């Protein structure tokens, strides 16, 4: 008999070496599937793959009911993918999700973005590290220049934190300001760094990196010369924001939202923003079509037809 654990291990192997999925996707698949297996074992429900049926899935849904809707939807999507593969490979006659209707309501939330003033305050904060840089140690100078380059890059391109972390030297051309990004689903796209300040920060970072003598294939590295992780970037952004008066919880993804929102408010066509962000569907990009209160007021003050009726 084929145990659930064996099936999960085979599925993860396929994801890594046959399906070519991203590290993040594989990590979440692994977490979600082994959590499901642990639930079944701890409740003495099932140990064999073929023994899983709809009632087990219903009980698992009840177990997850206090989680955020977005988290539940992800975990269910993981299980659906897993059982679909098991059915395709003839390990089970059919997926237990067949004819099982699941509806998870998720409140739509507008993406949170920084104002231009708030974004400037973060840039001011990160550039404070440049004061007396000539007196800094080689390692500190490297770290500070890297942090500036990371912040400038996030704001200049709207790049995802995972895309930034996985950026390789061979895909960065600072002469033309072009960067080849490996996005979601291994979809490649070119992004351009057109900000003079961002390009200057990236070049200074490279100078300090050479002094640091890292031979990593990744563009952004930590103090050990290894790839700078997603979590390290998140922690750095959080620390910077905590030194400002910003009330919003600031993450690298908030920079992405800020990039898109500010471009939209400057009347950039949404199709261009879709391309910049690497969205496969414009439906995803349309979450940015909300207009800020300031922009609404400006539009209504200057363009509402009532002002033309004063005479």
- Sum up the overall morphology in one term: globular
Q: What value does the average pLDDT take?
A: 88
CATH architecture of the largest domain: Orthogonal Bundle
Count of helices? 13
The number of distinct β-strands equals 3
Instruction: Estimate percent helicity.
Output: 40-55%
Secondary structural class? mainly alpha
pLDDT < 50 stretches: none
Strand content: under 5%
The SSE order reads HHHHHHHEEEHHHHHH
In angstroms, what separates the terminal alpha carbons?
86 Å
Descriptive labels:
3 strands, 13 helices, DNA polymerase, domain 1, mainly alpha, about 55% helix, three-stranded antiparallel sheet, hpI Integrase, Chain A
Task: Characterise this structure.
The protein is mostly helical and 311 residues long. The protein has two domains: 4-88, Orthogonal Bundle (DNA polymerase, domain 1); 116-293, Intergrase catalytic core (hpI Integrase, Chain A), CATH 1.10.443. The chain has helices at 4-17, 23-42, 54-64, 69-88, 116-127, 138-157, 161-165, 196-212, 230-242, 252-265, 270-277, 282-285, 293-303; strands at residues 172-173, 178-182, 188-192. It has a three-stranded antiparallel sheet with strand order 1-2-3, with no helix packed on it. It is globular. The protein starts with a helix and ends in an 8-residue tail after the last helix. 26% of the residues are buried.
């Amino acid at each position: 008999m084929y145990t659930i654990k064996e099936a999960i291990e085979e599925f993860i192997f396929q994801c890594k070496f046959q399906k070519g999925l991203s590290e993040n996707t594989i990590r979440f698949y692994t977490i979600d599937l082994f959590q499901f297996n642990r639930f079944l074992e701890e409740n003495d429900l099932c140990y064999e793959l073929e023994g899983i049926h709809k009632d087990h899935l219903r009980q698992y849904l009840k177990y997850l009911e206090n989680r955020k809707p977005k988290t539940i939807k992800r975990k269910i999507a993981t299980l659906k993918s897993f059982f679909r593969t098991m059915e395709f490979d003839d390990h089970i006659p059919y997926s237990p999700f067949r004819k099982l209707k699941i509806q998870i309501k998720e409140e739509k939330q507008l993406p949170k973005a920084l104002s231009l003033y708030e974004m400037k305050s973060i840039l001011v904060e990160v550039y404070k590290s440049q004061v007396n840089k000539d007196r800094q140690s080689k390692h500190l100078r490297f770290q500070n220049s890297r942090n500036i380059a990371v912040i400038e890059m996030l704001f200049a391109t709207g790049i995802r934190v995972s895309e930034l972390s996985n950026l390789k030297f061979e895909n960065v051309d600072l002469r033309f300001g072009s960067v080849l990004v490996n996005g979601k689903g291994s979809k490649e796209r070119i992004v351009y760094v057109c900000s003079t300040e961002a390009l200057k920060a990236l070049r200074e970072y490279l100078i300090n990196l050479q002094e640091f003598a890292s031979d990593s294939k990744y563009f952004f590295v930590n103090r050990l010369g290894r790839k700078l992780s997603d979590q390290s970037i998140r922690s750095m952004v959080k620390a910077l924001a905590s030194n400002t008066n910003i009330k919003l919880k600031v993450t690298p993804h908030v920079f992405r939202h800020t990039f898109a929102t500010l471009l939209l408010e400057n009347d950039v066509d949404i199709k261009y923003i879709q391309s910049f962000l690497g969205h496969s569907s414009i439906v995803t990009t349309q979450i940015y079509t909300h207009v800020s209160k300031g922009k609404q007021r400006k539009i209504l003050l200057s363009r509402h037809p009532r002002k033309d009726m004063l005479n």
